[in-house]
Amino acid sequence: MTKFELPKSVDLCISPRRGLKARHYIPKGTLVLTDKAIATTTQNCSNCFQTGLLKCSRCITKYCSVECQRLDWKIHKLICSHKEIQPEIEMLIKVQHWYHEHGDDDNQKSILCTLESNLSKFNQTDLDYLELQLKRFGKWNNESLQLLCTFQCNNFTIYDHELFEYGQGTFPLASLINHSCEPNVVALFKNDSLFLKSLVDIQEGDELFISYVDCILPITDRIQSLSKYQFVCDCQKCLNEQQITNYSEPLDNLQIFIQEMIDSSNPVPPKIVIEFIETLMSDYQDTSKTNLHESVRKSSFYRFSYSKDFPVVTKLFYDFMDLQKWNKASILSRFICAVYQYHYPQNHPMIGLQLYITAKCLWNAYEQNLSKLYIKYARQSLTITHGDLFPQFMEEVTVLENLIMNHC
């Protein structure tokens, strides 16, 4: 096996599968490791990842300034002649360039050589497509095909601090971390750097898990999304949800609730909705998913949290936000928070960000006491994930927190 170095916080585990485990106790909110991408693709500025308004005159690559375009030319010239290059081929060209630029003693290169491609598990249709793309750009050989398969099984989607996607990246070290739909660490990104933060206290010897897919997706969708990685997840969340796959069907009560929210000028959510919210949010830090009130567990709104219709509510929420209908937006946002609290692991950034947005909505809806509660929860959660990584964003949280606290 190729030898490579690991950060002091983690060890390599071999059984039952290769991954990373904690070398010592890791408190929640700890920066476990960092990794720098050896190659990226992005729809933003190709050099600094900020919003890019300028386009290369020869291709579709974007830049935020002429200076960024000049700085990126050494890499960009490798792909500039291809006007409609596929992201996976762009990544391949960049990785191969990086590979030949670094010596055999490079640690990232040593890790990259050990990553699984699962080439033998790909179906022939997918392999034919990859072969077609490689031949189109004159890159067809077994090494290139193996790398493309490795990318599909190991690359990361890159998100900004609000979890909006802006690219893809090859991160060899972080690729050693296995998947669970109940992760204990989360990957956050700044430009082309990855920061792995612990969501909960991790004991010595515990394996580290990230989620390769959105944890809130119904199990059928998660299985489909994970198929590109060539494995089937057997985490406890998946095993539990296999018993309630019928909950993914549309629900009549949900349709009625949504319609009432749209039609009513002063919506009052049904009692069961309030009970669902208050049960899950009554003690944000200590809520036990296994001890939900039985009435909530049996309710259609609990079932709805597994439903494919959930995006309907999130879209409706953002529509109300845009229209500045704060009462309706705040009710839906509280409901979304409760659903997130149930499905995402404790302290996941999706929870913290939604708590923050909910506090804004409640403040604008003149619900001062509730806004005080939600900004408190938001601060607790975001400090764990965002605290030392995104100081400018945390300053925005502080401004809202001071505004709410000083007027309650």
Describe the structure.
The structure is a single chain. The protein has helices spanning 66-76, 87-101, 107-112, 124-136, 142-154, 219-226, 236-241, 252-263, 271-281, 294-297, 300-304, 310-322, 326-343, 349-364, 368-385, 391-405; strands at residues 10-13, 19-22, 31-36, 39-42, 54-55, 62-63, 156-159, 165-170, 178-179, 185-190, 193-198, 209-210. The protein is of the alpha+beta class and 408 residues long. A hairpin with a 5-residue loop joins β1 (10-13) and β2. α12 (310-322) runs antiparallel to α13, α13 (326-343) packs antiparallel against α14 and α15 runs antiparallel to α16 (391-405). It is globular and about 60 Å long.
The backbone outline, from C-alpha atoms, is: globular
Largest sheet composition? 3 strands, antiparallel
- Report the span from N to C terminus: 61 Å
Low-confidence stretches: none
Question: How many E strands?
Answer: 12
**How would you state the average pLDDT, rounded?**
84
